[in-house]
């Protein structure tokens, strides 16, 4: 019974967090509707809404972080697989005295 209440409260907290996050994003979008352009290496982009430029920067940064963490993640998964295999072998091997 107590676990069910805890799970319900947890789901409500998660839903509240995402609702608050959506509200913040909506306010952010409404506050940044002005158009702007980006200059990089002497080249100028066409004008886009500022919110589009900022959100695309956040998304590209997040994707870059995921891409950079991928080798470590793959290495960890490989090590974990090897350790699980070793544990399985040790569980089935007889003990030597």
UniProtKB/TrEMBL annotation:
<feature type="domain" description="Lipopolysaccharide assembly protein A">
    <location>
        <begin position="37"/>
        <end position="91"/>
    </location>
</feature>
<dbReference type="GO" id="GO:0005886">
    <property type="term" value="C:plasma membrane"/>
</dbReference>
<dbReference type="InterPro" id="IPR010445">
    <property type="entry name" value="LapA_dom"/>
</dbReference>
<keyword id="KW-1003">Cell membrane</keyword>
<keyword id="KW-0472">Membrane</keyword>
<feature type="transmembrane region" description="Helical">
    <location>
        <begin position="12"/>
        <end position="30"/>
    </location>
</feature>
<keyword id="KW-1133">Transmembrane helix</keyword>
<protein>
    <submittedName>
        <fullName>ORF_3; hypothetical orfA</fullName>
    </submittedName>
</protein>
<feature type="transmembrane region" description="Helical">
    <location>
        <begin position="50"/>
        <end position="70"/>
    </location>
</feature>
<dbReference type="Pfam" id="PF06305">
    <property type="entry name" value="LapA_dom"/>
</dbReference>
<keyword id="KW-0812">Transmembrane</keyword>
């Amino acid at each position: 019974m107590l676990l069910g209440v805890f799970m319900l409260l947890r789901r409500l907290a998660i839903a509240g967090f995402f609702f608050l996050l959506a509200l913040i994003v909506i306010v952010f979008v409404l506050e940044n509707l002005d158009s702007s352009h980006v200059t990089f290496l002497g080249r100028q982009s066409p004008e886009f809404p500022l919110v589009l430029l900022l959100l695309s920067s956040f998304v590209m940064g997040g994707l870059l972080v995921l891409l950079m963490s991928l080798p470590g993640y793959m290495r960890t998964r490989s090590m974990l697989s090897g350790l699980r295999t070793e544990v399985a072998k040790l569980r089935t091997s007889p003990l030597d005295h």
